[in-house]
Amino acid sequence: MKRQRLHLKAPDNWVNDPNGFIYYKGYYHLFYQYFPYGPRWGTMHWGHAVSRDLVTWEHRGIALHPSVREDRNGCFSGSAIEEDGKLCLVYTGVRYEVVNPEDPHTCLDEQFESAQLMIISEDGDHFDNQNGKEVIIPPLTDPEIGDRTHTRDPKIWRGKDGWYLILGSTVREQYGEVLFYQSKDLHNWTYRNKAWKGPDYGWMWECPDLFRTAEGYVLVVSPMGLLKNGEKEKNQSVCFPVEFDETSCEMRIPDEYQFVDYGLDLYAPQTTTDAEGRRVMEAWIRMPRPTKEGWIGMFCSPRVVERKGDHIYFHMHPNLKNANSRKISDVSEASDEGYMAVFDLEEGETAEIGGFIIKRENGRIITDRTNVYPAFEGAHLVSETPEIKDGNRLEVLVDQNLVEVYINDGEYVISNAVYGIGETISVSGEKEIQLYTMAE
Ligand code: FRU
Q1: Are 277 and 424 contained in the same domain?
Q2: Which entry of 122, 184, 349, 399 is 20 to 30 Å from 159 by CA?
Q3: What is the distance in A from the centroid of ligand 1 to the CA of 397?
């Protein structure tokens, strides 16, 4: 399935993190971690999808594949910038020191090393995997800076004084940290500083992202081993309103964080600026098993990130709202791609969307996917937000594999993977439900 609307899904086999998300020469480019040989994680490639509007996507095949010593076992996550009209990708190359004798696509006992690489494309379409790769940061040798194995996922940006990148790492596999590097020319990089929080914030910080908004900086990280609740997904993406000084690369991180999404399926988000200059985010939605069509992994709807005071909002991107322009009176009239439902949910009320339950209790929004999700041990079925502020409005995007509940214009979002949604919708109290689907 090459052309997709609403939610971008794996073209086949397996996808995880979004990579190299950028608006470049009139197209949004979204690369992603891709395993082309089966519906499971393995030797990582970068798949590539493009869109004019963040709504309709087209898969373009494989952009990066292992081809040099430093990335021979995988092209891990990374990011993109435009320089001189060219598309520049930075990413982590992985080299296994001991390959798993049972499986050439994984390594034995975490024996691998990581380097940071760059590849420049003239047009965003062609990637010279044979001759175009350059190692910009070799595997770390100083444990005081970061880990030789677990240092990855460079996010690059243009700052006041040249180029910067933030990398995820770990302090002795005990707690997560981020590293800052700076460069004048994209080729030579200098380590500048680091920041961390300590043992209660996960043992390794994956996929860091740092950006300035009108009301200050936001740090997004995906700490491994954050949750200790016994459920399957211990790794979660969180965001902090931080203070950051670009000159010294010093960062102050507060104690409190928000989850990027309270469904706890969303992981490894990455942001860029859209055509109008908004900060827009994409993220991987984890799935526990392949669909019956045989693919596994998808991406959330694009979200506009906004910091207001110390709260971080994730609004539904206006392009998506506008694309859902055809008003319908029943979900059976929706296009195959799904629909958007808008309604109010007050304390004590419940909505039912084809088997998926949304309730409001104790000032929180609670979802329950038991009826539309496989049963397995440790399955995360019920999600809930913190107490919400005043406001009752829910905007819900629904398709056969993903339900996204935007609460009070993005004060919080709950996104849940599902496996088939029925053709019904109801809200207690006979409330009015507005339904929209995509115009043809
Ligand atoms: C996050 C992650 C990244 C890594 C990539 C490998 O999901 O583990 O840290 O670069 O996935 O696929």
Answers
A1: no
A2: 122
A3: 27
